[in-house]
């Protein structure tokens, strides 16, 4: 199947794909570099709902709270999940 695209459309498509790729790479780099996450980000990182993530806290997941701001360390999440793995 061959598609015939105008030069202008092809350039727009190429630019769109390039930008989407750059945005995805940037997001991956930010996620890798960031060690302390908000509770919402922590839930996403762990692959669970926010409410389930709050239950993890009751089960021993360490949460840092300073002046009402709560953060969780990626390493703590990984260790917690490993502890409860079977």
UniProtKB/TrEMBL annotation:
GO MF annotation list: DNA binding
Top-rank taxon: Bacteria
Protein keywords: DNA-binding
Protein name: DNA-binding protein
